[in-house]
Design goal:
Strands 1, 2, 3, 4, 5, 6 and 7 form a seven-stranded antiparallel sheet that branches. The chain has a five-stranded antiparallel sheet with strand order 9-8-12-11-10, sandwiched between helices. It has about 325 residues and is an alpha+beta fold. The two termini are about 20 Å apart. The chain has helices spanning about 1-65, 70-80, 135-145, 190-205, 210, 245-255, 290-325; strands at about 90-95, 110-115, 120-125, 150, 155, 165-175, 180-190, 225-230, 235, 260-265, 270-275, 280-290. α1 packs antiparallel against α2 (about 70-80), α1 (about 1-65) runs antiparallel to α4 and α1 runs antiparallel to α7.
């Protein structure tokens, strides 16, 4: 009889253990999902805010060019006058319509650029038959769209210190008669974006509001990357590039949709939470290793199992004591 009672109590405890574990797993997974979606949105908003600030600074430079198009010298001076607006900009340029200034010939593209972080800005005219900017994708797109945009990331190499990975904010500029005068641009390296990601990750991990629930079980474990619409990683922690080839996700990136996808980074399985970034054709993705998701669940399961085991032991001890008392 006592053996049956012990078996019954053990079965009840095991059922309660399984039910409790399933409920806790669902709650933890839901909270974890909401937490990382929140992190994704915060990262997207922070990057968008930085990009917006860059656009505003660049627009001030372009507006200065628009106001001073009477001579080539005035244009160059206008570009130089605003170079201190944003330390992350490597250079500003104004690519004019062919023969806009007859004395300059067909090509005139003054480029005010910073060879390196320690140097000041220098000026040179980079327009030529060798560099026919009128055939460049960014120039053609600006003429056809009549609006500002960010170029696709690209690698520029000329054997000098300004070689590197860039993206360019581009805007067509019109004269007083409404005719296209030039296409202005601000070249930016990806140093600012990598730095931005590091600051975002560090700030979020210190934010008690975002990790309050999960912090009871484990620390937040994630990192943030920026993905181009073709699925390539354009900014990421060193050694953690995560190219995406899933057709459904690529379609989401092109259509600026949010979602999740299972990925493997250096052989480590993870979940990527992704969403678009306002102002640019990029998406931010929060990469969460599976271990970070399952660790709280394992921890809760261990606690529940320990409680159930303790309950079985207590029942066994009680029954054993009852047996000894009955014998006495």
């Amino acid at each position: 009889m006592k053996r049956i009672l012990l078996l019954t109590m053990t079965t009840v405890l095991l059922v309660m253990l399984v039910v409790s574990f399933l409920v806790c797993r669902y709650v933890i997974q839901t909270e974890s999902h909401l937490c990382y979606v929140g992190i994704m949105n915060v990262a997207s908003e922070k990057i968008a805010k930085t990009v917006s600030g860059m656009e505003m600074n660049a627009m001030n430079v372009f507006d200065e060019v628009r106001k001073h198009m009477e001579t080539p010298e005035a244009v160059t001076a206008a570009l130089q006058s605003k170079t201190s607006l944003n330390p992350d900009v490597r250079g500003y340029f104004a690519a004019f319509e062919p023969d806009f200034f007859p004395q300059k010939g067909r090509w005139f593209e003054p480029y005010v650029h910073q060879p390196d972080a320690q140097s000041g800005f220098v000026v040179r005219d980079v327009g030529s038959a060798r560099h026919d900017y009128t055939r460049s994708d960014w120039y053609i797109r600006a003429k056809e769209s009549n609006k500002s945009f960010w170029s696709d990331p690209y690698y520029y190499y000329d054997g000098t210190s300004i070689s590197g990975r860039y993206c360019t904010f581009v805007k067509p500029v019109y004269d007083a008669k409404g005719r296209l005068a030039c296409v202005c641009g601000a070249d930016m390296t990806f140093e600012w974006l990598s730095k931005e990601l590091q600051e975002i990750d560090a700030g979020i991990k210190q934010n008690s509001l975002l990790n309050q629930f999960l912090s009871y079980f484990t620390a937040l474990d994630f990192y943030t990357v920026v993905i181009n619409k073709d699925g390539s990683c354009i900014a990421y922690p060193e050694g953690k590039s995560m190219p995406i080839k899933d057709e459904t996700v690529l379609r989401d990136l092109a259509e600026e949709q949010s979602g999740t996808v299972e990925v493997a980074v250096n052989g480590v399985p993870a979940t990527a939470y992704y969403c678009p970034i306002q102002y640019v054709d990029w998406s931010v993705a929060v990469i969460v290793p599976h271990q970070a998701t399952w660790m709280p669940i394992y921890f809760v399961g261990l606690i529940l199992f320990s409680v159930a085991l303790l309950g079985v032991i207590i029942v066994w001890l009680v029954l054993r004591r009852m047996k000894h008392e009955k014998v006495s």
